[in-house]
Amino acid sequence: MLDRLFLLLVATAVGIPALATGKASSWPCVQITPQRLPDLNIPREGHAVFCAGGELMVAGGHTNGFVPTATAEYLMDGEWHQLPMTYTHDHGTALVLRSGQVLLAGGSKEEMGVGQSFGVEMYDPASHSFTGFGCLSQKRTLASAMELDSGKVIITGNWYADDVVEVF
C-alpha cells in the first residue's frame, strides 16, 4: 500500500498523468538483469564508490569490527585489485575531478566512527596510486564536495561537529 501511495505522490509531483491515475501499464517498462560482481578482497562499509580511468573503484571505509581500512580496490579483468591508501576516509568524501583524478578527504580515523580526520589525498587512476598532500581546515566526517568551473573544490558538511565551507 505504501509503495502505491509513494508512486502516486511522485507521479503527481512530477506530472506523469498515467502514473497519477494508476494507469502505469501505458508507461514503458524495461527489465534489467543485474550482474553479480566478484566479492571485494576486504568487506567494507562507509566507503566511496566511483569510476575513475574507466574502472570501478571502492576506497576507504571500515571492515569487520568497525575497523577503518586505508585500502582501495579497483575492478579489472573480473578481479578486484587492492591498493594502499594514505588515509582511511571512513565516511569521508570522494570526488572525481574533471582531470580524471579523484580527491578523497576527511572521514573517521578510529574504530566505531570515532575521531574525525583532516587527511586529504589524490588518487591517480593512470598509476593506480594515492598521494597525500594536505589537510582540511576542519576535521570532517560525512562531508560533500563539488568541483567549480574554476577547478577549485568546495568541501562542506560535517557530522556531530561544527562546519565551515572551505575551498581547495
Distance between the termini: 47 Å
* Low confidence ranges: 1-15
- The general outline is globular
Structural class: mainly beta
Oligomer: single chain
State the share of residues found in helices, binned by percent. Answer: 10-25%
Strand neighbour order, sheet with most strands: 1-2-5-6
* Mean pLDDT over the full residue set: 84
Q: Counting H and I runs of at least 4 residues, what is the number of helices?
A: 2
Order of helices and strands: HHEEEEEEEEEEEEE
Count the beta strands.
13
What portion of residues belong to β-strands?
A: 35-45%
Major pleated sheet: 4 strands, antiparallel
Radius of gyration: 20 Å
Highlighted features:
168 residues, mainly beta, four-stranded antiparallel β-sheet, 2 helices, 13 strands, disordered N terminus
Would you write up a description of this structure?
The structure is a single chain. With about 170 residues, this protein is mostly beta strands. The chain is built from two helices and 13 strands, in the order ααβββββββββββββ. A four-stranded antiparallel sheet has the order 1-2-5-6, with no helix packed on it. β1 (about 50) and β2 (about 55-60) form a beta hairpin. It is globular, with a radius of gyration of 20 Å. The N and C termini lie far apart (about 45 Å).
